[in-house]
Specification:
The protein has 1 helix and 8 strands; from the N terminus they run αββββββββ. By secondary structure, the chain is mostly beta strands. Strands 1, 2, 3, 4, 5, 6, 7 and 8 form an 8-stranded mixed beta sheet that branches.
Length: 116
């Protein structure tokens, strides 16, 4: 057993909006992802959506406005709430969600998550 170095894991990523699993606990995936630009509006009917900014800046559009996160900040979108993450600079995130949760809320349009 050894610690997970998130910076080393993020250095392996080339594509934006393609989360990679770096660990797991209690049935949840720990994932890192690089983002830039806008993602799609979506929701997760069965689970909350956890975001932690490691570097950069992330805005999360919500029905009543936007929340902006900077490094070290966490935000949880409640289950069933429409939201759209976006960034104007490359931003690195830690995501935590139940294993198998589709990143778009829809398995048909979700990115395939692999472990690195």
């Amino acid at each position: 057993m050894k610690p997970i170095n998130l910076a080393e894991k993020l250095a392996q990523l080339d594509a934006h909006w393609s989360p990679k699993i770096v660990g797991s606990f209690n049935g949840h995936d720990l994932m890192v992802v690089k983002v830039l630009g806008e993602f799609i509006w979506h929701d997760h009917p069965e689970t909350d959506d956890f975001f932690m900014v490691l570097s950069g800046e992330l805005a999360i559009d919500l029905p009543d406005g936007a929340v902006t996160l900077t490094p070290g900040e966490v935000f949880v979108v409640p289950k069933g709430m429409q939201h759209r993450p976006r960034s104007t600079v490359e931003t690195h995130l830690l995501l935590i969600e139940p294993a198998g949760t589709p990143n778009t809320g829809d398995p048909a349009t979700a990115a395939t998550k692999t472990r690195i």
